[in-house]
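Running this now, will post back.
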Amino acid sequence: MDMAELGEHIFYALGQQQGFSLIRLGDSELIILAQDIVFPTNLELKKWAGLMAALSHDPELGDGDNEASRWEDFLSLSGVQFPDKGAQDYLIKALHSATLVGIPTTNRPGRSAAHIRLIQGFQTTLFKVLEKLQIPLNAMRFCDSAAHYMIHASGLLRQILLPDQYPGLRERYSLPYSKPRVLLIGNRAAEFAEFLTANNCDIVGAISRVGMNNIEEVIQESYYYSFELALVSAGSAAKYICSSISARGKVALDTGQLFDVLLASGQFDHQGFKIPYYLML
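Update: finished.
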């Protein structure tokens, strides 16, 4: 799904006050999902690379790329300690209910051939997870897991947050506001709220201290706010949070590290923004 089509779906959902959720799966989420569904948790995590190579019929998978040795570190950054079946349950629920699922693709400019092979291994693992969970591929809608960056790079994020700056946009989609009320969720939500407010966005709240261990508390806290759109930068926890919020007739986007990247640059303008593929699978 390209950004033009994604924009159509998001604006339609906002105009009709219908639920829409975009979640994205990276290495951490795919590892969590694969626990005892594809690969056994009684085996040291870094040894999963060999099992993934066998599953993918690619004996060279993982050669020349040291990412497999850092998988446990990636999980920790996502707020998960291996193994974690509770996190897996949340992700499976999110998979079943998400409108759109971003997955790693081989469109990763600048990444090594070894890394691209690893991406292909993760794709194979995901499809095996879906098969085991009896989720048919034709029931899923996929996009690139870099969609959160693409939404910004294409200018779509600005259109979503500031539709009144684009003549005819509100009328085309029957948007009932000049700007959507936005709830931010993530450990840097308060900082990002200041950043977006300074750029004329309507931020109604920021929920910080978010992780897999307090998902239900975060969801309950979100009920205190009136909003049309939630931007969620909360690692693996973002997946279930987005799916839960969309079930209430709201739009929820898993924005990954976008908060961090925009805060680091200090720039809201999308012109010249380069997608940091080196930060992701």
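The mean pLDDT is 92. More later if anyone needs it.
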